[in-house]
User: What shape does this take?
Amino acid sequence: MSEPTSPIDGSTLTRAIVLLGVNTFVSAANIRISDPLLPQMAVEFGTTVGGVGVAITAFALAYGLFQIVVGTLGDTSGKLRIIVIGSMWAGLATLLSALMPSLVPHIMARFLAGVGAAAMIPLGLAWLGDVIPYQDRQAVLARFASGTILGVVFGQAIGGILGELVGWRGVFILVGVAHVLAAALLASEMKRLKMAAPPLAAPNLHNALRAAARLASGRWSRLLLGTAFLEGALMFGTFAYLPAHLHTGFGIGPGLAGGLTGAFGIGALAYSLSAGWLVPHYGQIRLMGMGAVLLAGAFVTLAISPWLAVIPLATAIVGLGFYMVHNTLQLEATQLDPEARGLSVAMFAMMLFTGQSVGAAFAGFVVDRWGGAPVFLIAAAGLLAIILWFRRQLALRAG
Assistant: This one.
């Protein structure tokens, strides 16, 4: 297996990564933008928090299901080109969702937004896998994750504050416009640098199915993809309801609830900025073990703490622990099939977000009946078990 090489010089590569980061920032914000707005949307649509949470499920389901499509198109037509198209699509669909008068058409528009948003993060990771050697890749992926992390913070924290100022519809309009602008910036850069080359090859369904079959038949692929599914279900399917849990349990508004939830980004950024030291110092195996323990402890704290002041610290620890685990999973995804890297990373994302959609649906059912504490306790136990199990498999694979 040969390492990737690229004629892109350092400054050009840095600029491309920054613009990719802008697009992933908006995509991540769109993924999480509904979280702090659920109570406000439930009142306007005349339903429960769990009922309006179906919009989160719809977005995540579309995001997951369309990964195979965007991954195949990225491998055959150019990853950056598909990112631009996807970001523009997601922006227009998000604007449409802001205009919907009732819940069902809003859910349909969110599904369409998830289709477009599917391209940004996985194809960005795959593109970096194409141009960054394996030995340097984990630290670069961690820095690249800053765009995603900041988007999550915006979606959860700033989204709640903006929701109080301009309403949930105004927040969706802002995110939609940001998508369109981010797409235009990357398209302009691609044109100026002549990155927008003609298609590499005509999309070929047969080749895509063969690559998918290779991934589905490999034991390591199945282990990694199954872990991604469970991680998505237990982590993000549950975490989406933290603002609603804080609103119900502590009587705070969506702005403060979203702001406290946004502390996730502080812990995540702490990992992103320190990964260049943490990864070589502790190694993948120890980092995953540490991350599993931190995640479990933080989720238990979120479930049982009677003190609001403890919540931002626990939430920040969730962010730190999650990225200590997830960064290694992402790295492994970029190496599943270097000949079809876009598809392999897209399948990883498909499982992650399909898991989120299943987890969000289950968590919404539980939250409506018994509150948020049970789902956080389930997440704590489940994440600890699955991460430690995968850590053991990774250690065995490393020899």
